[in-house]
Amino acid sequence: MGNINACVDLQRDGDVAVIVMDNPPVNALGFALRDGLMQAFARARDDAGVRLVVLTGTERAFSGGADITEFGKPPREPNLRQVITAIEDLPKPVVAAIQGVALGGGLELALGCHYRVAAPKARLGLPEIKLGLLPGAGGTQRLPRLIGIEKALEIIVTGDPVPAPAALALGMVEAMLDGPFPAAAVAWARQNATAPRRLRERTDKLEPARADAGLIDRVAAPLLKRARAQQAARACAEAVRAAAEKSFDEGAALERQFFMELVKSDESKALRHVFFSEREAQKVPNLPAGVEPRKVLRAAVIGAGTMGGGISMCFANAGIPVTVIETSQEALDRGLGRVEGNYNTSVKRGSITADEAARRRALLEGKLDFAAIADADIVIEAVFEEMELKKQIFRELDRHAKPGAVIASNTSYLDINEMAAVTSRPGDVLGMHFFSPANVMRLLEVVRGAKTSPEALATAVAVGRAIGKVPVVVGVCDGFVGNRMLARRGAQGERLLLEGALPQEVDRALTDFGFRMGPFAMGDLAGLDIGWRLRQARGTRAIVADALVEAGRLGQKTGKGYYAYGADGRTPTPDPEVEKLITDASASLQIQRRAISQQEILERLLFPMINEGARILEEGIAARAGDIDVIWLHGYNWPAYRGGPMFYAGLVGLPYVASRLEAFADASGDASLRPAPLLARLAASGEGFGSVGTARG
Ligand code: T1G
C-alpha cells in the first residue's frame, strides 16, 4: 500500500526521491495512479532535501499504458498529458527506471522524464495503433525528438515493442542496468542525472526531416501499406509529420485532435473489443474457485499426419518433450520427415536458427507402441475423422495413459461424449481442436464434454496458452463454434453461385470487407475434396462444389478448382469452364440467374453466420459473444479491425441484421434463415450480444 495513495509510494534514498507505481497487474495509468503521481511529484518538487527523482514501477511493468477500460467514459483530471507535463517541468532531474514493459502511455510517461534507464529484459513501445489509436500523450512529438523521425515513425506505425538492448542502441534509454531496481537506477542517477533535459525543447533530431521534405513520405509509405488499422496509421504519420514541421504545442494539439477522432472510430472500438475479448476468452467459464491446472511436463500425440505433426511441433516449440505414435514405421518416417521439412523451412526463412531447430527437433520422438504414452501428462489423438477408429484409439489410450493424464481428441466435429464413454475416465476426456496448419494457426477450440472435469478443462486451456495458442472453451455440437458457423457461410456461397453470382464476385465481397481470401479461393487452397468427403459422409450435397470435385477440379493441388491456376500454381484466374458448370447447374434447377450486388453477397455470407452465432450462444455452446469473435479472428482470419462477427453485428445493428434475415428467408423459403430467438429478442430490446449472460451453467 503506497503512502501517497493506493497506487503510489514516495520513498527517500538520501537526497533522491524514489516514486514507485504499483497498480496491479500492469500499472495501467488509471485515475488513481495519475492522481498519485501528481501528488508525489509535487512533494518531491517542494522538498528542499530532494535533489533528483527516480520514477519506477514493478518488475512486471513500468506501465502498460493508459487504462483502456477508461476510454469512452467521462475524462477525469489530471489526465495523462498533465501528469507528463508536470514531470517534464520539474526543476529537478527525473529518471525513469524501466523494468518489464513501458508501453503506450507508459513509454510516454518515461519520455516526460529527463532520463531513462532500463533493465535488460525490459520492452518499450507505442502499440496504440494495435488498438486503432495513436499515442495521445505526446509520444508522436517527443519520440521523434529523442531518436529522429525515421525510427520514431517505424515504432509508432508498427506498434511493435523494442527490447531494451535495441532501445539503448536507438537512444530511447541512456543506459541498460543489470543491478536490482530501483537501487541500480538511483546509483546511476546520482552519477549522470545532472539537469532537467526537456524533450519538448529539443529539435536537433528533427533536422534531417526538416532538411528533406520527402523523407517522411518515403519512410511512411511501406509502413502504411503494411498497417492493418489504416485510419490510425494515417493519423500516426500525420502527427509525426507535425513534429517535424510545427512547434511542439501545435504538434501536440494535432495529436490530441487525431486521438479524439480515433477513440470514437469503429476501427478502434473493434480493436479494443478484440483486446479484451482475447483475454476474457481464455478464462475457463464457471471454473470453481481453487481449481488449478495440472502440470504438463510431457505430451504424446497419436498420429503423425499433417495435423499430428503440426500439433507435435507446437509442444516441441514450447520446450515440452513430445512422443508421436504411429501404426507403421513408414507412416512415422513420413510424418517426422514432414516435421523436419517444416523446421528446415523455418531455418531457411531465418525465423529460427539451426541450433534452435535442432533443439526443438530433439524434443520430438517417434514410437510405434501405445505403451510409450505411459508418462505423458496430456495425450492428443489426431487420427482420421472416423468415429469407430477414434473410439478404438480411446480404448487403447485409456489402457496405457497414466492416471490424471488429459486425453484429448483433435476432431473438428465428432462427438467428444461418445469417445469419453468408451473410457473409464470421462472426466479427463475433452476435445482440443487445432486449426491447420496446427503449428501456425493460433486458435484452439477446447471442447468441454458433458463429463469433462474442471481440472482437465483448466489443464487444456493452460497447455493451450503454454504452446502459444488462443484457447477458447466451447461445447459439443456438430462443428463446435467456428466450423458450425462456417457451414452457414458455405451454404450461402453455393446458393449465391446458383442464383447468379460468380466465384470471383463472392470472394471479392469478403476481400473488400477485409478477409485475406474469399471462401472459394480458400476452398481451392485447402482442397475441395475435404468438403466433398464430409458431405459424402453426411449424405448431403452441394451441387456446384460436388460437380467441381467430380470433374477432378480439387483446387490448387490439381491446378484448377473454382479458379484456374497458372504457372505459379497460386494465382487464381476466373475460368469459363467453371462459369459454364455453374450456369448449367442453375438451369438444371430452373433457377433464373440474376445480377447480385456486392452488398447483398456480403450480407448473405455474414448474417446467417451471425444468426448461427446467436443460436450457439442460446445453446451455451459458447459462453460469451466475444469468444465467438476470438474464434473467427484466430481461426478464420476475420479482420481484427472489424472486431469479429458478433461485434460487427452490433455495429451494423441487430434490427437491421434481423430484418435482412427475414427477407432472405422470404426470398428463398429457407426457414433456417429466420432470426434465432436470441437475435430477435435483442433486436427488439435494442440490446447487443455483449449483454448475453456469460458462462454456461
Ligand atoms: N489498460 C487496462 N487493462 C490492461 C491494460 C491496459 N493498458 N493492459 C493490460 N491490461 C489488463 C488485461 O486486460 C489483463 O486483465 C491484465 O491486464 C493482464 O494483461 C494515452 C492511449 C502489458 C504486455 O496497448 O500489451 O496508452 O484479463 O493478460 O500477457 O497514448 O497486457 O487479467 O482481467 O495481457 O503479461 C496502450 C496493452 C494503451 C498495452 C501485459 N497500451 N497491454 O501482457 O498480461 S492506450 C497497450 C498489453 C495508451 C496513450 C494511449 C499487455 C501487457 P485480466 P495480459 P501479459
From TrEMBL:
An annotated Gene Ontology molecular function: enoyl-CoA hydratase activity
Pfam families noted in UniProt: 3HCDH (PF00725), 3HCDH_N (PF02737), ECH_1 (PF00378)
Entries under Gene3D superfamilies matching the protein: 1.10.1040.50, 2-enoyl-CoA Hydratase, Chain A, domain 1, NAD(P)-binding Rossmann-like Domain
Alphabetically ordered keywords of this record: Fatty acid metabolism, Isomerase, Lipid degradation, Lipid metabolism, Lyase, Multifunctional enzyme, NAD, Oxidoreductase, Peroxisome
Domain 3-hydroxyacyl-CoA dehydrogenase C-terminal: 479-565, 601-687
Pathway(s) of this molecule: Lipid metabolism; fatty acid beta-oxidation
Catalytic activity reported: a (3S)-3-hydroxyacyl-CoA + NAD(+) = a 3-oxoacyl-CoA + NADH + H(+)
Domain of life: Bacteria
Cellular localisation: Peroxisome
3-hydroxyacyl-CoA dehydrogenase NAD binding domain boundaries: 299-475
Main location: other
PANTHER family xrefs: 3-HYDROXYACYL-COA DEHYROGENASE, PEROXISOMAL BIFUNCTIONAL ENZYME
Family affiliation: Belongs to the enoyl-CoA hydratase/isomerase family. In the N-terminal section; belongs to the enoyl-CoA hydratase/isomerase family.
Assembly, per entry: Monomer.
Protein name: 3-hydroxyacyl-CoA dehydrogenase NAD-binding domain-containing protein
Organism: Limobrevibacterium gyesilva
